[in-house]
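A reminder before we start the practical. When you read a complex entry, don't treat the lines as separate problems. The point of joint prediction is that each chain is placed relative to the others, so the output describes one connected object in space. Small molecules and nucleic acid strands, if listed, are placed in the same frame. In the example below there are two entries. Take a minute to note the order of the lines before looking further.
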Amino acid sequence: MKRILLSREIMLAFAIVLLTGGIALRFPGFIAPNNIALVFNDTSILIILALGQMAVILTRCIDLSMASNLALSGMVVAMINAAFPGVPIPALIGLAIIVGTILGAVNGLLVWKLDIPPIVVTLGTLTIYRGLIFVISDGAWVNSHEMSAAFKALPRSVIAGLPVLSWVAIATIGLAFFAIRRLPLGRSLYAVGGDPHAAVYTGIDVGKTRFMAFSIAGGLSGLAGYLWVSRYAVSYVDIAGGFELSIIAACVIGGVSIAGGIGSVGGAVLGALFLGVINNALPVINVSPFWQMAISGTAIIVAVALNVRSERTKGRIILKRAEAAV
Amino acid sequence: MSVMKKLFASAALAATMFGGVASAEDMRIALVVKALGIGFFEAAAKGAEEAAAELGGVEIIYTGPTDTTAEGQIEVINALIAQRVDAIAISANDLDALVPALQKAMDRGITVISWDSGVATAGRQMHLNPSSNSLIGNMIIKLAADHLPDGGDVAVLSASATATNQNIWIDEMNKVAGNYAGINVVATVYGDDLADKSYREAQGLMARFPDLKAIIAPTTVGIVAAAQAVTDAGKIGEINVTGLALPSEMAGHIDSGASMSFAIWNPIDLGYAATMIAYNLAKGNDVAESGKTISMGRMGEVLLDDDRSGAMSDPFVYDASNVHDFKDIF
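Here is the predicted structure of the whole assembly.
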């Protein structure tokens, strides 16, 4: 199974390289090193969120509320920054993560304790969190001139050639690698998604594991909330509207199975990068806006089709081996 | 808070009920807004007071409900009818719901006009739009051209490709683009009114057109995202971001120099013009008929179309000299 996943990631990486090459034929500036860095930086937020979403999807759940969570956490810290410019930025980032984690934990609790299907829970909280932004902000924007200079400067300050925003994504990838490989929680995410009943027999609390997955996704949404409002220097009710679908698409393209239990950190990151490359390439290669949507959609369907095929062959191989054994 | 608001509102209502009696000869013009306490309308009231001072013998009754509902406005209108004001100038919360109440007012000889947000034709004598599509189309390219004496490449960053108002404004802009020598509109891209997509589209424009001199974004999400993208790319001074936006949203980008100027209606002018029109109609100086013009004092004249609605003026230009006076208003 590991071999299949690995080859899948290599295939995806190959597809990204091919895509980038194709774009470079039409717009050579696209493969300039500083442009590649720009694309990675632009995709950083999507990578962070895709990793959170992966944790949830691995447990056979889904979180549709991540973009709303991002927008609400972002609005909370933006409003605090506007009202009290003296609050230090690390405190605000910590607060964004805490708010996000709490919002994610609400999803997790509803799924765990009330046993409501995750798609229903998060469809509800998607609207509730979005509505809460309106309640706390009264529909008003927090604008660039109201945010403190330090608040806006952090994600774009450059360390060793890359903006902090990119470094945050890299750190998140590193942490995710470690957590998935080394921590008991990382392993139980797979166990719960792969076969919840078997997981119970091995002593894993399925509900609690899902709760933890939602909380992690929430915390990462909160972090992304700060990064988003400071990067675009604006916060209003609709920010990141519809972004939840890009996050899920990144996971699906990266080979994270919607049925749970299958997926890897590398896959989710590559899936996000694949979308990031498309998103950044379409504006420079001059494609009609109507085609842009069709192209993004086609990429997702092709990825899912490949997923389904690879999962099916996996099943067959097992059967063949079983037959051979008999 | 809401109790206080209601207290204030009823105090204001009581004041309007009794306040007018003392000076019966004055013409009393009621400026009815969507809701009290909104900066935009407070500014319009300031304009109305300016018109009243200029005309003399005019009393402005600035009123409205505490929340933006048609029911609240109907109550206010009925109170104004009871006070027998001379004119009502209203920014409506609903196109149709206010028609019966306003017809009752007109039956009692009260001049009724709508401004900013209109009422159906049956419920008002005329409607004053802040601007018109052709004026906006001309203004957005003029904003870019004014800072490009030698000409150059400009690009448009719109909302979605299917946004009707955006497309109309861009069409009107392209119609008059020939009047601005040396200005080449090289592309129109769509940010879908999403901050991240608009930001990427602005980055794409800068990559595709190294000689780009201006980005015109007739949408507030787009202009803010483009200004941030230009700032992050270190191209302040090379590329001027302009278009339509609110002063509160753009003040920071005007300060940074990413945007030299932008435009939107001026609420003070709007309140002024609405008051002037209401005065002239109530006095009988002008009549509200299709094809006729009504005087608006320093704002010139408004020409009424088939629906008896007209456009006040070019959008008002905001730049470093005035944006801070308006950023707290709207």
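Discuss with your neighbour: The interface with chain A takes residues 160-161, 187, 189-190, 193-197, 199-201, 203-205, 207-208, 221, 224-225, 227-228, 232, 248-253, 255, 327 of chain B (CB under 8 Å). What might explain this?
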